[in-house]
Amino acid sequence: MLDRAESSGANQESSGAGQVNRSHRWSSWVRLLRRLILRRPAGPIPRRAELPTNALLARHAFHRIDFADAWSIGLAPGMPTDPALWSRSLFHGSFRQYGASPDETLLGADKPHLAFRASVLVRDGTVTVSTVVNLRNQLGRAYFTLVRPLHPIVVRATLRRANRQLATAAARPTTRRNCAFDSHKPPPDHDLNHEK
């Protein structure tokens, strides 16, 4: 509080000399970068991983893979292990499903300039999101050159959010509210007018 009062007094003094000295404020980009880099939220942090040998759907998605990366995060006890459930929580139905196995789901999109597949593999207490990209032409290469630096930031944030969301749902008792996260359990029957 004192700092603000002192800085506003300094602003007024310098404005008397004909120059306005505005208090320093970070730009929105700097604030975003500071939040992403300096403030580490609590909870598990996704770690870079090798493309898993068990991610067979991702490994065989294209004849030629121009880019591949993977990020993994550990599962807390009691968290769901259904890759389809993790895929819904991660991508909210944004991409077409190209394949599924008991421990892996493959989603993606095909565009004229590039095609990508995102594999969600749940195995050995870990969820691994792998991305494989097939660049089809010069436009695809140029587009991916711009997107590539942002890709890990987006994948890590999405994986953290899904992990936090599913961990919270797993920690609560089953209710109508979190039943959407557990595709194997039907919603419980609640009679709200049971006191009649």
Strand order of the largest sheet: 1-2-6-5-4-3
Coarse morphology: flat
Radius of gyration: 24 Å
Name of the level-1 CATH class of the domain at 47-179: Alpha Beta
Report the structural category.
Answer: alpha+beta
* Overall pLDDT score: 81
End-to-end gap: 56 Å
Structure overview:
By secondary structure, this protein is of the alpha+beta class. The chain has a domain at 47-179: Alpha-D-Glucose-1,6-Bisphosphate, Chain A, domain 4 (2-Layer Sandwich), CATH 3.30.530. 35% of the residues lie in helices and 22% in strands. A hairpin with a 3-residue loop joins strand 4 and strand 5. Helix 4 crosses helix 6 (151-171). The protein starts with a helix and ends in a 25-residue tail after the last helix.
Question: What's a quick, concise take on this entry?
Answer:
The protein is α+β, with helices and mostly antiparallel strands and 196 residues long. Helix content is 35%, strand content 22%. The chain has six helices and six strands; from the N terminus they run H-H-E-H-E-H-E-E-E-E-H-H.
